[in-house]
Write a structure and sequence with these properties.
- The structure is a homodimer of 408-residue chains.
- In chain A, helix 1 (59-70) crosses helix 2, helix 2 runs parallel beside helix 3 (128-140) and helix 7 (295-307) crosses helix 9 (323-330).
- The first copy, chain A, has helices at residues 59-70, 89-107, 128-140, 147-153, 206-219, 256-276, 295-307, 309-316, 323-330, 363-370, 397-405; strands spanning 19-24, 36-41, 46-51, 76-83, 114-121, 162-170, 173-182, 195-200, 224-225, 235-240, 284-292, 343-346, 349-353, 356-357, 374-380, 386-393.
- Chain A has 11 helices and 16 strands.
- With 408 residues, the first copy, chain A, is an alpha+beta fold.
- In chain A, a hairpin with a 2-residue loop joins strand 12 and strand 13 (349-353).
- Helices cover 32% and strands 25% of the residues of chain A.
- The first copy, chain A, has a 7-stranded mixed beta sheet, sandwiched between helices.
- Chain A has 2 domains: 10-276, L-amino peptidase D-ALA esterase/amidase; 284-405, ArgJ beta chain, C-terminal domain (Ubiquitin-like (UB roll)), CATH 3.10.20.340.
- The interface between A and B is large, with 69 and 69 residues.
Chain lengths: 408, 408
């Protein structure tokens, strides 16, 4: 069950001027589920993306990068679930291209104005005919207030739909931000098996939008892990439709930080939602490593903790078997780490220091914290000023069940 | 259940002249189980060791390294299960030292002639009084043919005892090698939560013995992983008692390779036994990556495959969801990897090439292989001559169960 996460109400996902969303049940893999999503953007929208670093990146990811580089003005996005179109070679590229051409034709666009996205099983051919057959229905129900349907249409093993909105004021004009995401397994930075779409009606320069997506992804989707697997298909898209009548935001605008932080907040909420809905998750863990010499060493330690199956199963069992955390700190690969000068906290409780259990620690304190649903693990290295926070979940029977059964 | 692994017969574990083994039920953590092992060595034995690289290495590991460096002639080993004496700071060192002093006194040795070993729960104080109280019983039953009892005495979450023997001839003299090991969780190179003790009655120079243990560990214990967790306590000890009356083996001896390879065979069998008895294991997987530019990149890819929870759960389910293997190859961190020129085989079956599924591949072939208990995953990179083989197991409900319940 998702950890303290419920699907948003349709009304809470605010429409973004210039963005319409339509869906279809195209039976890509399974019948009777929304599995095709079309998003259209007003003319003069600006679009930026961040994509997986997996060398086996999927065909649609390759096309997305290509089309964004061509700068012909992205006007539509096409997403399918059920098949990742990854590990599909030349044929996969052709099928992704065909789907873009089909949508472009229906919308009177060029195919390089359509960004394709796929998520689902790897190494199987995309049933592109089914995707294309679903397009007229999706186009017929394009609406600005379709964000919840859109969030549902991109789910795979997700249990709840993920979306959130914010409103801010820029140069006296109300600006809306709405985002949706999907993903719950194969979740790891660079990036998750995840798709994320965040739109704003603000007017933003291309350079400012590029800067914001990099900032936001480093604070959000690049700080989560469920199972350490980096997907072939991860894509985060940030869209600005230029419909809010604000003065265009550049990197030098006084309001740049205001917009950047609001978009980053949305990205963090969407990223955390993915962890809260992590496959089989029963606990949400925040891992903070501070006092490091560098962010890099803080990240190494944080991820050693967040990836350890032994730690994740102990959290599942609400067992304060905290020595496993010390072990992970010890094998994180920091050659000159002095284990005698660091502290380990669980919530507010000092658990270990001076290379061993803290004198003040009592197991009932650990047990009480382990029973909570949201747990903070904090490591203080006392050797510098760097600090990193990441989010992960525990490892349960259901993780195995979901992933053992995924294709059946 | 262990994968194609049964405990050795007592008679199959051959006595090694100069090595005696005795055990006790000392109730270190649980009653009615062998949990203390004493091994004594004839005078003039030579002993070398390889230990965990975890920065939080346990107190006994620190003492082992110290005592081996002092070169006073190791004459005894003391092993306890139930408590790892790791993450225990200064107090842990004192307790480990106390246990060595107690055994040294009973055997009329100096304490730096006794190597201590602990395995079990981390972050809890070693009940050293219980260990010491068990020593007289262990000493009373010291025998040369106690190898199976010894293998049982070092088990923790292991299901079956692990041991094997070999005999070879060196300069016309029969030489015996016997080894035992333990470990089934927190298993990862550098090294596993594992203890290994291999003894031979051969006469071997100190330098040759050092050379052999490095060679053997790199071919065996450093090639296994169950869960990617590197333990605080891993120790492999190689002992040569100089009782076989062979001409002393040096690195220049004609027979050096013969002895080295026989000891390495034993180490490989003991290491593989740990994976076959991996926590919750139902499948044994051999992962070979060949045609790499370097061993390092082959290892990176092999471990990316072997650590992926998504792959391990698919093997548990006998589901040829092979795209997950491509994804792992892709995120292994080889920046210039060309996914279009590599091949992926499952057993003898070509599964993927040219960036996608092989034209000749049929899913029933994959399904048939996935149902086997021993499965070979082979990646051919076609960019060099390097080759690496590692061993791992699948990821099942029982892994979660065992590790969620471990302390209760």
């Amino acid at each position: 069950m998702p950890v303290k996460l419920t699907a948003p109400q349709a009304a809470s996902l605010l429409s973004v001027k210039g963005v319409s969303l339509g869906f279809a049940q195209a039976h890509v893999r399974k019948p009777n589920r929304k599995d095709v999503l079309v998003i259209t953007l007003a003319e003069n929208s600006r679009v930026v993306g961040v994509f997986t670093k997996n060398r086996f990146c999927a065909a649609p990811v390759l096309l997305c990068k290509d089309f964004l580089a061509q700068q012909q003005g992205i006007r539509a996005l096409l997403v399918n679930t059920g098949c990742a179109n990854a590990g599909t070679g030349e044929d996969g590229l052709k099928r992704a291209q065909l789907s873009c051409e089909a949508l472009a034709q229906l919308l009177n666009l060029q195919s390089n104005q359509v960004l394709p996205f796929s998520t689902g099983v790897i190494l199987e051919p995309l049933p592109v005919d089914k995707v294309i057959a679903g397009l007229p229905v999706a186009i017929a129900n394009l609406q600005e207030d379709n964000w919840l349907n859109a969030a549902e249409a991109i789910m795979t093993t997700d249990i709840v739909a993920k979306g959130t909105s914010r409103q801010i004021e820029l140069s006296g004009k109300k600006v809306t931000i709405t985002g949706i995401s999907k993903g719950s397994g194969m979740i790891h930075p660079n990036m998750a098996t995840m798709l994320g779409y965040i739109a704003t009606d603000a007017a933003v320069s291309q350079a400012a939008l590029e800067s914001i997506i990099q900032y936001a992804v480093n604070k959000s989707f690049n700080c989560i892990t469920v199972d350490g697997d980096t997907s072939t298909n991860d894509s985060l898209i940030l869209m600005a439709t230029n419909q809010a009548a604000n003065t265009e935001i550049t990197e030098n605008s006084a309001d740049f930080v205001l917009l950047r932080d609001a978009l980053t907040e949305v990205a963090i909420e969407l990223a955390q939602a993915i962890v809260r809905d992590g496959e089989g998750a029963t606990k949400f863990m925040t891992v903070t490593v501070e006092g490091g010499k560098s962010s890099e060493e803080c990240r190494q330690i944080a991820y050693a903790i967040a990836h350890s199956p032994l730690i994740k199963t102990a959290f599942f069992a609400s067992d304060p078997n905290l020595g496993r955390i010390l072990a992970a700190i010890g094998y994180a690969g920091i050659e000159d780490l002095d284990v005698n000068t660091l502290q380990l906290y669980l919530g507010d409780v000092l658990v270990a220091e001076k290379g061993g259990r803290a004198a003040s620690y009592r197991e009932d304190q650990g047990t009480a914290i382990m029973k909570e649903l949201d747990i903070l693990v904090r490591v203080v290295l006392n050797r510098g000023d760097a600090k990193v926070t990441i989010w992960t979940c525990d490892f349960s029977y259901d993780y195995v069940k979901i992933n053992a059964d995924y294709r059946s």
